[in-house]
Write a structure and sequence with these properties.
Radius of gyration of chain B: 25 Å
CATH topology of the largest domain in chain B: Aldehyde Ferredoxin Oxidoreductase,  A, domain 1
Structural class of chain A: mainly beta
CATH superfamily of the largest domain in chain B: Aldehyde ferredoxin oxidoreductase, N-terminal domain
CATH class of the largest domain in chain B: Alpha Beta
Strand content of chain A: 25-35%
Number of helices of chain B: 31
Strand order of the largest sheet of chain A: 2-1-5-3-4
Radius of gyration of chain A: 11 Å
Distance between the termini of chain B: 62 Å
Strand order of the largest sheet of chain B: 1-9-8-13-10-11-12
Largest sheet of chain B: 7 strands, mixed
Number of strands of chain B: 17
CATH architecture of chain A: Roll
Shape of chain B: globular
Oligomer: heterodimer
Number of strands of chain A: 5
Amino acid sequence: MSIKVNGKQVIWIENETVKQLLKRMKYTFPLVVVKINDKLVPRSSYTETIIPDKAKIAVIHMISGG
Amino acid sequence: MVEGQIPIEEYKTGNTKHKWDFNKLNFAHRIVAEYDYKKGEINKGYANRTLYINLESREIKEKKVTEDMKKKFTGGRGFGLKLLWDGIKPSTRWDSNENELIITTGPLCGATQYPGSGKSICLTVSPLKDIICDSNVGGFFGPYLKFAGFDAVEIQGKAKHDVIIIIDGEKGKITVETAPLEETDSHLLNEQLTHMYASEDNDKSRQKISVVTAGKGAKNSYWGCLNFSFYDIRRKVSRMKQAGRGGLGTVFRDKKIKAIVAKVESFTGISNNPANPNKIASVGTKLHREIRDLDRYQCNMRAVGTSHLVEVMDEYDLLPCENYRFGSFPKASKIYSPKFYERFTKIIPDGCWHGCTMACSKTVDGFKVKTGPYKDQKVTVDGPEYETIACGSNMGLWNPDWILEFNFYCDTYGLDTISTGTSIAFYMEMYEYGILNKKRCDNLELCFGNFDAVMEFIHRLAKDNKSEFITVAGKGIRCVKDWLKKNSWGDPLLIDDCGMESKGLEYSEYVTKESLAMQGGYGLTLKGPQHDEAWLIFMDMVNNAIPTFKEKAEALHYYPMWRTWFGLNGLCKLPWNDIEPANNAETEEPTKVPEHVQNYVEYQNAMTGWNITKDDLIMQSERCYNWQRAMNVWMGRGRRKDDWIPYRSMGPVTEVEYLSRKDRYNKLIVEKLGIKEDEVEKMDTINKIKLLYDYRQDQYQKLADAVYFRRGWTPNGIPTPQKMKKLGFTDKKILDMLQKAIDEDDIKGLNVWGGKYKKGEKPPSIDPKYWEKWKTL
């Protein structure tokens, strides 16, 4: 059982929320956009949105920097 | 007073206790040249003239800005390139008499309604690189130069004695005068001249002065920066921002310029006389609100400036540690932004130009200096910004106060913190390998983490009598590489691979090993490895959004055009994508921040009265970008070989680096090179490093192929005449020069792709002269 995060295979964890996934992936950068199966997840829903098995997750980091 | 605010009299800012005899200083001045000019009005963002000063012939004159110049070069950096093209020769080097130092503004520079609108752009032929280097900077000078009547100042020739140039917008007078008695170090010289040239002895008058200075370090090294002052009326301190890259301050001091002073009579938010001031106000207000409401949840720049990036880069393995060997370090949390937040003076607006809500220009006031000529004095330290803090991690300095000391002395000596820090980090690594040692380093134990040695190195750099090591070391990494190899000290390949410079310019502070696109963002550039062309690490390495060479090439076309555009207009980059609108995530291309792109279209149109689209903005940049590359070719550079980068920026050079990320690299060898996992396990580290070495260098060559093709250049990286014509350039001199260079490359067999393409792989074009088909475009 796995999910794809930014094109990379990652183990799926039952009942894991978007917020927990970001923590697991060490994605600490504040300017990110999260999409599950191409559907945008509002920032306010990160704590309650559960990642489904086999999901395709895009965690788009804005450019920033410099 | 805001809750928690400290009354101004309780601030201990430093820099304010000095007393000077201004009559004595003034009395020693001797006028070298004078020029009276008619004060004019700025029209739709342009003063419509530039100022030319020749320090040798003492000629001062005005040059008209034509409509054609605006159309082709827009302003700012574009104007600088045009003036350099007319003023220098292909053989001009940094210390040639005809080399020019140019400070430009841009049509949006000086507006106060839109955040980040106070940038100047400086250009010169760089001592580090022998090609043109540009560097942008905040502070009040750029806006004041324009309000005094000029879109740019162009300085040629060298003075016989130290001089100050005064651009007096109050009287309409330019004066060049000798200045033998003033201080040399920037924090004092800025303060002296701000007081000396203010019309009255009060803060309001001092705020109408801005000073450009360098310092002793700038004179004695190739890392000279320019300090641009802005008088902080709350702190009562003349603060400074830096045009750091490429040795601008070295050229400044070589011309014997001690300072340039700009003075204005008055200015308002509409001194630019915009075509549509209401529109600028409405676009600006929208962004002000966005920053005010959202910054604290996003990058928190208003509180900690760019220092917030330290923890981000450490988490993502991108923070340069010990000369870029590692991207994170166990001690890194000691220099995270909260450590600097504790030291920053709070609740004072910190913009480096009026009206910037981003206000990222932080200071540590009352900092007690521990070393050197100002030991035990209290000073105001501007910054540190992310890059300077990351110089600390690169040198193994894990103490915020050490980084502040490094920051203070680099600024006041006129040294670019990035080049200084990156170079010292390289010298430290060479010291660790025994290639350098105490004897070879002028008796300094220049090993990682040795703060005392770092500071002593910097103090010696600021002295006129220097040892061989300090002299060579101050000329930068490229010089030291040659020096080490000439003396047969160490393995030449190791030296080349570890010294983080390209085109002679030292790297800025990001680890790029795992992002091919960012390797291109540093190498496939005009001036060298500075992050102000493209910062693609997240997009490439984390988002995995540009996996193919073609997609990376498109990003390496599009994003540098934006950063270029800010330099054409006098804008800061940060309000573009270090803050995003609340609904940005819902847009089709959130990484491009579409609402902000639209803001820029409306802002430039409202200022100039033009009717441009977002594609036109890109075209403005593309013209300038290609012109600068063409000038590199004209000066004997601008080829594939000049875009090469050291292997340390592509992958692990040493065993310790490989072993520290062993799983990552082993996996890569399995996935990319098709070697079985058990075989990889059995291989020794040296062989695995060699496999990666060849693979990653070939990847870089293939990236260069794709990028050159996308940019409309030859396989050897020369902008084609066809491309230049498409951009609207008809100048026969430049078109003929490019054609000649291409023909010469042809004879040498250099018009070929650099990548090794295997079966099933294709170069960008199989037509050997693909660009000739573009004639009809």
